[in-house]
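User: I'm putting together a small comparison set for a docking exercise, and I want a reference complex before I start. The sequence is below, and the ligand is pyridoxal-5'-phosphate. Could you produce the 3D structure with the ligand included, as structure tokens?
Assistant: Of course. I'll restate your input first, then give the structure tokens for the complex.
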Amino acid sequence: MPERFVYADNAATTQISDRVLEAMMPWLKEGYGNPSSIYALGRKSKIAIETAREKVAAAIGADPSEIYFTGCGSEADNWAIKGALSRLAKKGKNHFITSEIEHHAVLHTANALKKNGAEITLVGVDEGGRVSPADVEAAIRPETALVSIMFANNEIGTIQPIAEIAKICKEKKVLFHTDAVQAVGTVPINVKELGVDMLSLSGHKLHAPKGIGALYIRKGVFIDVFMDGGGQERSKRAGTENVAGIVGLGEAMEYAAATMEERTAKVLAMRERLIDGIIGIKRCRLNGCRDHRLPGNVNISFEGIEGESLLLMLDMNGIAASSGSACTSGSLDPSHVLLAIGLPAEIAHGSLRLSLNDYNTEEDVDYILEKLPPIIERLRMMSPLWEKIIKEEQ
Ligand code: PLP
């Protein structure tokens, strides 16, 4: 048995908080009415949904009428992109711009659109993982329907110049969507100040349950319906609502907005100590930039190491971490994000993502800093790749 369990994979998912669970419980048990029903039991569910909508909207500076609940962040991304393209293609706008380092919820959606005849431009990033607004501007054409650039990257934590890109898109009269799944609840977001047209978010990244997300669609922006069926979500997203999940998301977002400052200060201090403690290890590098970075993200590549072996050894010591995005672990391809920032494939293979949040403690950081360096050393002693690196060094 490991001495301790340290969960350092909060970018993959988070634990439901007590307050969220408590808020959800009545809607899983006695509050089971269908929100579309006209009797009191149903009306109560409807009121719970609308109260949660107000909380979600308030947390990102939106109007409640601009919030649409979805099944997850991936669904919000799919809807924003496919909905915009299918609507605008009818007007001859069939070009979509996104970045090389998006989550697969966006990149695979782009591939699906391409198969249906859309034109796709992927803008690159610099070595810190930042998209240049000038590159986005240069890629815009008369037939561009939509630009989608993620708010913050899930692997390396890089935060993008969203307001600048949104301004360019507005000037060029092109819709702009941002996948803010990693950022909402972690960094301050105000959709009006940012000037975005659409924004995706997901509950399970901020202590709400899995299976609930939302898409912000600015008033005056029209995209095609993604899910046909009943009249839920103002006839834009059919399906009987996940009342408990929606209530949980509202609670989580209200709490996250109210406690942002203190949580960020705590997480940032832990992250900096963790980076400083690891970066002294021979032949490793911090991926992403240090300034424009999610408060809890640490992503480091170690030469001469296989990320999968590192994760197994960490797991044996009670540390849960990730070597790339959770959705691609299990695949042996190096991370598309690390390749896009210019890492050679063999170094990208030796990467580790530790993602902290306010549930972590200074003791967690101490424990990782105690366990990680000897694990790296042991793995390198067994690594033919490391032997080669050392020989070349001599
Ligand atoms: N976008 C980003 C940046 C993510 O990190 C994730 C999940 O890891 C998603 C989208 C997908 O969200 P969900 O798991 O809610 O579908």
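Residues 325-329 have pLDDT under 50 and may be disordered. The pocket of pyridoxal-5'-phosphate is lined by residues 72-74, 77, 103, 105, 150, 154, 179, 181-182, 202, 204, 213 (CB under 6 Å).
User: Thanks, that's exactly what I needed.
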